[in-house]
Write a structure and sequence with these properties.
Layout (H helix, E strand, L loop, with lengths): L1 H21 L5 E3 L1 H11 L1 H21 L5 E10 L4 E5 L2 H7 L8 H10 L4 E6 L2 E12 L3 H69 L7 H33 L8 E3 L7 H7 L3 H11 L1 H22 L4 E12 L8 E10 L7 H67 L5 H35 L11
Parallel strand pairs: 1-6
Antiparallel strand pairs: 2-5, 3-4, 5-7, 7-8
Helix pairs in contact: 2-3, 2-6, 3-6, 6-7, 6-10, 6-12, 7-12, 9-11, 10-11, 11-12
Length: 472
């Protein structure tokens, strides 16, 4: 009995494992907001942009150290071929001290006797010498140039941060276009499959009518041509789905064939109405306040001005306070072993053939360029907001027309079906009505998602983040 139970248990386990292996896992469902978040956190473009910001921040930090004293330490050990000495002839002292010899001690008299024999050697340098020194230098007049250099770096850091936000907004717009394109293609797959099933039903019906000699001889061919056209549209829609998913996976830095299902939970057409509740002037004002592009050029203009002042500082005399401690060993009795000194140093390139002058001239040109770029950016942003608002208004009007067109096409198809079944119309008329209904339904889908796309575009044009539902 136990053996039978073990066999049954083994069969159940084996079956369960086999079922898990052959049953495909359900595809992950991702909303537009989720795709954007993943792409912003993991996308390669965003990683590169964040590294640019980090590098600019570190460049700014590197300038801080120039405000403080610079400490330089040096050390050396040198081995020479031999020690160095100097012979000293001290015999002249013997003549001078001879008369004083009786007054000197016996030891001193012995030394004088040795000196009278020719002199002595003085050690100037040992065979091995060594040394160490510490220098502390504090820039003084250079602080003007250092300050504006630091200010320029800090402003460029702010430029990098705003460019990162701008890159993020561009990524969000690209994702919105692709994601809504995916939904459009996916809906078209559904409507086209339904239309294909309907045409296949027509094909069977026409075949029956043809066998009964109740329709024209080429009626079946017309249905089959219509069927081929719908199949071709279905292939195109399915290709659009696969391509859009691959592009979204690329944005999210995932394998291109990663499976997921788009969701429409966070898609709401009411966003368009809320955006149009704001006047065009109000939208322009928000854009001028929040758009990262205008902030970037403003910081760039300040950086260019700081660069001009840094170039002026490069033309000034270089004055520094300095202190140095020096230790030397093995240098004999003529050289002090420890010494230190300090003072003020001045250096000024009195003539360098206009190098710093032309550097200053170039900095002034860059400052003027930055001012013009800031003005141009303001004009472009004003135009961009205006264009995005007009496009949204046009998309809403097109949607209204598409709704009416879809209703009329559906009603027309219903009537044509009834007339065809009553043998009051031709197969060509029925197929034309079917084509119009399919086209109207797909057009309605495209117009609905176009409203969403233009709403996101206007929101970003106003400087608001697509992920911020409140738009603050």
């Amino acid at each position: 009995m136990q053996r039978v139970q073990r066999n049954i248990f083994a069969i159940i386990v084996t079956t369960a494992i086999a079922w898990l292996l052959v049953t495909p896992a359900s595809a992950e469902e991702l909303s537009l907001q989720q795709v954007m978040k993943i792409a912003i956190e993991q996308g390669k473009d965003m990683q590169i942009s964040r590294l640019d910001v980090d590098a600019a921040r570190e460049d700014t930090k590197s300038m801080r150290g120039h405000f403080l004293p610079v400490v330089t330490a040096e050390a050396n050990v040198i081995i020479w071929d031999d020690e160095s000495t100097a012979a000293l002839d001290m015999s002249f002292l013997t003549d001078i001290l001879t008369e004083l010899a009786p007054l000197l001690s016996p030891a001193t008299q012995a030394q004088l006797a040795g000196m009278s024999g020719g002199g002595s050697d003085m050690l100037l340098r040992e065979q091995v010498t060594y040394g160490a020194s510490v220098t502390v230098a504090q820039p003084l007049s250079q602080l003007y140039q250092i300050y504006y250099g630091y200010k320029a770096k800090d402003e460029l850091h702010q430029v990098a941060k705003q460019q990162h936000i701008s890159a993020r907004h561009k990524l969000e717009m690209d994702i919105a276009k692709t994601y809504l394109g995916l939904l459009t293609a996916q809906r078209m797959v559904g409507t086209t499959e339904a239309a294909l099933a309907q045409v296949e039903e027509y094909e069977r019906q026409v075949q029956a009518f043809l066998d009964a000699d109740m329709v024209e001889r080429n009626a079946l061919m017309k249905v089959q041509v219509q069927k081929a056209d719908i199949q071709q549209g279905l292939f195109a829609a399915r290709k659009g789905v696969r391509l859009a998913k691959a592009m979204l996976n690329l944005f999210m830095n995932r394998p291109l064939e990663s499976s997921f299902t788009p969701s429409e939970d966070d898609l709401n057409l009411s966003i368009a109405e809320s955006l149009l509740d704001i006047s065009l002037t109000g939208q322009r004002n928000q854009a001028m306040k929040h758009r990262p592009e205008i902030k970037a050029v403003q910081h760039g203009a300040v950086a260019a001005n700081a660069g001009k002042h840094a170039a002026i500082g490069d033309m000034l005399p270089q004055i520094s306070a300095m202190f140095k401690y020096d230790h030397k060993g093995g240098m004999g009795t003529m050289q002090k072993e420890n010494e230190y000194y300090g003072g003020v140093m001045l250096s000024w390139n009195v003539w360098e053939w206009g190098a710093t002058y032309y550097k200053l001239t170039a900095a002034k040109k860059r400052e003027r360029k930055a001012e013009i770029q800031a003005s141009s950016a303001r004009d472009q942003i004003m135009l961009d907001v205006t264009a995005k608002r007009l496009e949204l208004e046009e998309a809403l009007e097109s949607l209204k027309a598409a709704v009416v067109k879809d209703d009329q096409a559906r009603e027309n198809l219903r009537l044509e079906k009834a007339r065809y079944e009553a043998k009051q119309t031709t197969t060509a008329d029925l197929l034309t009505a079917q084509t119009l209904a399919l086209s109207a339904e797909n057009d309605l889908t495209a117009k609905q998602l176009a409203v969403l796309q233009n709403s996101i575009a206007l929101k970003l044009a106003m400087g608001r983040d697509a992920l911020d539902e409140k738009g603050n």
